[in-house]
Write a structure and sequence with these properties.
It is found in: Nucleus. Keywords: DNA-binding, Homeobox, Nucleus, Transcription, Transcription regulation. InterPro entries: HD, Homeobox_CS, Homeodomain-like_sf, KN_HD, PBX_PBC_dom, TALE_homeobox. Belongs to the TALE/PBX homeobox family. Strand 1 and strand 2 form a beta hairpin. By secondary structure, this protein is an all-alpha fold. Helix 9 crosses helix 12. The chain has twelve helices and two strands. Among the domains are: about 50 residues; about 120 residues; about 70 residues, Orthogonal Bundle (Arc Repressor Mutant, subunit A).
Length: about 400
Amino acid sequence: MDETGRMLQHGGSGVGLMGGNQGQGAQNTTGYGSMGPVDGTATQGPDQAVEARKQDISEILQQIMNITDQSLDEAQARKHTLNCHRMKPALFSVLCEIKEKTVLSLRNTQEEEPPDPQLMRLDNMLIAEGVAGPEKGGGAGAAASAAAAAAAGPPGQPDNAIEHSDYRAKLAQIRQIYHQELEKYEQACNEFTTHVMNLLREQSRTRPITPKEIERMVQIIHKKFSSIQMQLKQSTCEAVMILRSRFLDARRKRRNFSKQASEILNEYFYSHLSNPYPSEEAKEELARKCGITVSQVSNWFGNKRIRYKKNIGKAQEEANLYAAKKAAAAFAGASPYSMGGASQGTPTPMMSPAPPGGPQDMAGYGMGINGSDYGSQPYNDGSMGYDPMHQ
């Protein structure tokens, strides 16, 4: 059988692995590492010996460059020839010595890097929004909380349940796309990592590769892939934020009452200015007429009383306007906003001017009708929270 591979050059001897003939290989079986001539180079001059070595190195490099052009069968045959060559242990030993001298094994052997803070922030945000979680498919509880926070609104509105389900459906769609893409990412990363590890293990049969170096290469691969993971999580967080902003903005736009509802509420407030605290029955009637909830009616009256007390001058002009409207309606024979009560059937008088002491003296100033004292009414009815959206 022909010897494949010229004898590797070592200490002046012509020892090769990639080419040559059987006779030359037989001459070198006992000459590896010896200082004496084993290939007939003693009969050559120094210049001729150097030139021969250069030609051998050039031939080896050319064979290495041609490896990419070889077929799979040719590459497997060449690899098998190399593994079976009698000088392969010597080649491996030489490579180990070279590696120890050049300290290649210590290159980039840094300690494990801490986790990326930006990636941790994105993970926490996805968990909070219900997109990611400990179980497959995201955190159902977090998703329900996020949906309730985004689509929350006053109870009793028919479109509230529709918006809530619509938000949850869109959030579930985002969560599904995220997990599908994340699964593809993990699959591609694992496949590529496995391929590189197998390749390094195969190469370790010819050149020295330690397990730590393989582990380090796996870390480098994961770090390269982490940029893809970060981009995926960043785009998912942006999609969730856009979804939340759309639903929250739509809910805020609907918080302002209609013009007709504001007219009804203002009419009742200034008609009962001496005691602007509607009963539960009156609140239910106002809620039915305005198409809102009883809680919204209570909040509106609480905010209205606070604004009235803070800006008494402007409120007086508004009260005069509504009083004129009611007087005109009573003169016509019917009030479209009649709610019954102490003022039913009796025109409400115009507001009296404020006392000389200013608004701060309104606490003791009787506004009233039927002996009631507006200033003596305490602002402690549970609906006093000021909401600037309810105007």
